[in-house]
Amino acid sequence: MDLQVQFGLRVKELRLKIGLSQEALAYKAGIDRTYMTGVETGKRNVSAKNMDKIIKALELPVPEFFNSALFN
Amino acid sequence: MDLQVQFGLRVKELRLKIGLSQEALAYKAGIDRTYMTGVETGKRNVSAKNMDKIIKALELPVPEFFNSALFN
Q1: Separation in Å, CA of A67 to nearest CA in chain B
Q2: Is the Cα torsion angle B6, B68, A67, B65 positive or negative in sign?
Q3: Do residues A26 and A36 lie in contact, with contact meaning Cβ atoms separated by under 8 Å?
Q4: Is residue A72 part of a domain?
Q5: Domains in chain B: how many in total?
Q6: Whether A66 contacts A35, CB under 8 Å
Q7: What sign has the CA pseudo-torsion A15, A21, A26, A32?
Q8: Which site among A58, A70, B40, B57 is 20 to 30 Å from A24 CA-CA?
Q9: Does residue A24 sit within a domain?
Q10: Which residues 5-44 in chain A show a CB within 8 A of chain B?
């Protein structure tokens, strides 16, 4: 699995954990909802800038966001 | 500091640690050398696909790559 897909799975995992809808997370991150759908499904080759927005919206330090077996 | 810049600093730190030139790391990652310069200097909004190539070329698990104070 490549990072693009792994990133999406991790975002979804954490989003559900804090009980946010995709729309709510997209709004909080300042990202278009359809773009967020593409990120979570691994279809979007998400950029560092948008990763940053999403991770900040999840309120997690970057090291903690990537500290998951999903990325092994 | 945003993720784009932090990522570049971490790549440079790890590249120097294993004694690779920018050119050698770019070649190993299958990425253009000038693009790699842009990544290291934080000028490139690097994508997940290219992050993946670079991290794999550094031979580090993704969680370990991001496990650095640079990302706090």
Answers
A1: 5
A2: positive
A3: yes
A4: no
A5: 1
A6: no
A7: positive
A8: A70
A9: yes
A10: 6-7
pLDDT of residue A1: 82
Residue B68: inside a domain: no
**A62 to B3: CB separation less than 8 angstroms, yes or no:** yes
In terms of residue numbers, what domain contains A16?
Answer: 3-67
Residue position matching structure tokens 């927005």: A53
Question: What's the CA gap between A64 and A36, in Å, rounded?
Answer: 20
How far apart CA B36 and CA B55 sit, in angstroms, is 12
The C-alpha atoms of residue B59 and residue A72 are separated, in whole angstroms, by 12
Considering only CA atoms, which of A10, A55, A31 is closest in space to residue B71?
Answer: A55
Q: What is the pLDDT of residues B8-48, one digit of tens each?
A: 999 999 999 999 999 999 999 999 999 999 999 999 999 99
pLDDT above 90 (res B1): no
| Alpha carbons A1 and B9: distance in angstroms, whole number | 25
CB contact B62 to A (< 8 Å): yes
